[in-house]
Specification:
78% of the residues lie in helices and 0% in strands. The protein has 10 helices and no strands.
Length: 227
Amino acid sequence: MVAKKTEYGSGPLFRVAGTVAGVMMGSILLVAANAPLLLVPLLGFQPLLLILACIPVGPAVVAAMYAFNRLLAGQDTGVFRDFVRGYRRNAGQALLVWLPYLAVLAVVGFNLLVLPAGDAAAPVAGGARIGLVGLGLLVLTAAATALLLLSRFTFRVRDLYRLSLYSIGARKRVSLGNAGILFVAGFLLLISTAYLLPVIAGAVVFLVCLNSRPLLAFIEGKFTAHQ
């Protein structure tokens, strides 16, 4: 019986270390691509500035998803290189996909801010807040799905909108998992500090990509010719 020689760097610990390093690099690149967003807390969270600072989020998230998807598939050429390639290839379309979702999220956020806080309106306001938070989470999950699909496929923008909503019902477990990841991340930011975002951004996007692998396989099998 001939024993097979294990190549250096092919063991599970090396793969785990490589994945962790890739996620850390992705976090750094996400922070660098969204530098204006880090200045918003210093300026007192002015709503208009926050919305403007969120505009680059879409292209950056698509680039990170492109790099992380390749990392998970074992096809990466380095997270930095893949991030840059994904950004160059998808930035324009990512803006077209992301901006309508951002507009809806801005409306939801505005309505949350203007809800009355008095005791007399507490029951109605409380119910409205729960509904708006649920709506915001649904929109954010659909946005993450659309950006994820853009990072992997070459659909038209209008098809990405349709598929982002279709996927929520077609793959409920994936959608619930992504919604849970986003909710926990938002909750951690709410109870701690907004400056936690640069620390967890890469991990959140990576977990969404990891959780969404069955969805990508489903979309590829049903709607593409194996791009």
